[in-house]
Every structure is written in C-alpha cells, then in structure tokens.
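User: Can you recover a sequence for this backbone? Please restate the input before giving your answer.

Assistant: Of course. Working from this structure:
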C-alpha cells in the first residue's frame, strides 16, 4: 500500500495521511491506493489550497494563490483569500523536503496586502528548487511580483495583469512623510519586479502611472500577449506548457546535482589515494 503525505499549513511539515488507517488488508491494493489517494488529495486541497502530484518520474507541489492576499488583518468571510501565514511555512517545507522536485504556482488574484505579497514573492525568488508560475484569469496589483518571482513565468492568453501605484485605505496623515512612504514602497515593488523579469524599472513605473487607460484609477491593464511583449512574463502558454517547462527544469537540476556529486566523489577518492 502506498504512503501519502500532506503539507500542514500550520507546522510547515509533511505529515502522514490521517486517513491511511481506514484501509484494511482485505481491500485490494489498487482500490485502496486509489481511494486513499483521492480522499487525501481532496482534504489537502480544502485545507491548504495545494496538492502534491507528478508523473511518476517527477514529484511537484502545486500551490494556488487565489482571491485576495490576506495580510495582518482578517478580511471579510465573503472574500476569497490566500493567507500568507499559511503559504510561508509551505514554501519553507517545499524547499527543504527532499521528495519534492519542483514547485508550480497557479495565480488568479486581485492583489491585496503589499507587504504580505512581497514576503511570499521574496521566498519564492530565493528558492533553489525549480519554480514555475502561471497566471490564470488575473494577476493584478501585488500579484505581479508573485508571478515574476518564479524562475519561469507563464500567462494564459485570456489572462490580464493590472499595474498601478501603491494604495492605502483607512486613516492617513496629510504630511510630506506619507507621500515619501508611498514612494519608497513603490520603489521596492518596482525594484523587485525589474530584477525578476525583463522589464526595465522606467517602463514599469511608466505603466503604473499611466493616466490614459483606467477611468477611475491610474495604471495599465495588460493582457497575456502584452505582458509577454513588455517583458513582464516570460511566455504565453497553457498548463501543459508550464508543466513541461517545470519537468525540464527538474531534469536539468537533477543532472547538475548528479554531476556535482560524481565530481565530489572523485575528489574524495583522490584525497584518500
């Protein structure tokens, strides 16, 4: 019988499948494995919005970032949210889990808390394992840094991305320091995006400050083709394209690690001799 594990969003650890004990020796192996695996995947999707899958040769962790990025304040129950305190430990566990070969991030987000989004994006950008992101539907506002944080980014032709300046809701003090704080935060976002994509800081700032496109706001909406042409996203594609790219990156990483291990082994042998 196969052993299934799921990633706890609270501890960041891979735990044994809690439903495994329901299978008895009387069950056929194929039926038991299929039933337990299906039930486990459903529980994992409901609990963490993620799933561990693969083609037998590669094992990948699929993470979804949907709705609004929830930061330090809890949003309304009517809002679809991605909680950064759930995603952050998952990313750390994925990076440290030896059985996981790569990470696929699926995005359909309207944006949300800037600092929470940047925190997630910085973690993804700092991962050694192969990472691929794909924008489906929309990757707006702080969803832009999240999309470009992966080593390779894809966008569906029907998807869109909105680039606009930083906003703040609630009480604000009308002093020059407030404007300076906004400008510094915008510079952080611009720097991160330009360092993790092919768009220049000047062009990204120009798109964010565009006053000729949005009626009630400042900024620019890019569809899939435009996002690629601007250098924000690497390629147009579908899920199969993103998966194929991730598998190739995993194979390349494994070959590199194997070569490095062989070289290290030869060095140790030479030292002993």
């Amino acid at each position: 019988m196969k052993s299934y594990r799921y990633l706890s969003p609270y501890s960041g650890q891979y735990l044994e499948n809690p439903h495994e004990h329901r299978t008895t020796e009387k069950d056929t192996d194929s039926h038991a494995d299929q039933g337990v695996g299906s039930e486990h995947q459903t529980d994992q999707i409901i609990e963490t919005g993620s799933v561990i899958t693969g083609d037998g040769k590669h094992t990948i962790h699929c993470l979804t970032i949907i709705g609004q990025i929830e930061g330090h304040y809890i949003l309304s129950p009517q809002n679809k949210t991605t909680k950064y305190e759930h995603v952050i430990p998952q990313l750390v566990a994925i990076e440290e889990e030896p059985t996981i070969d790569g990470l696929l991030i699926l995005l359909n987000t309207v944006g949300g808390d800037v600092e929470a989004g940047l925190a997630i994006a910085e973690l993804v950008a700092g991962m050694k394992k192969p990472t691929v992101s794909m924008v489906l539907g929309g990757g707006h506002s702080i969803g832009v840094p999240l999309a470009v944080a992966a080593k390779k980014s894809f966008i569906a032709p029907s998807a869109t991305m909105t680039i606009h300046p930083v906003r703040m809701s609630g009480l604000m003090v009308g002093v020059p320091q407030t404007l300076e704080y906004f400008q510094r935060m915008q510079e952080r976002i611009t720097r991160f995006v330009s360092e993790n994509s092919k768009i220049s800081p000047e062009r990204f700032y120009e798109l964010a400050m565009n006053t000729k496109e949005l009626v009630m706001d400042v900024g620019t909406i890019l569809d899939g083709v435009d996002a690629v042409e601007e250098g924000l996203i690497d390629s147009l594609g579908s899920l199969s394209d993103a998966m194929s790219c991730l598998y190739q990156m995993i194979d390349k990483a494994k070959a590199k690690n194997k070569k490095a291990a062989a070289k290290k082994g030869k060095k140790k042998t030479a030292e002993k001799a």
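That completes the design. The first strand starts at residue 5 and ends at 7.
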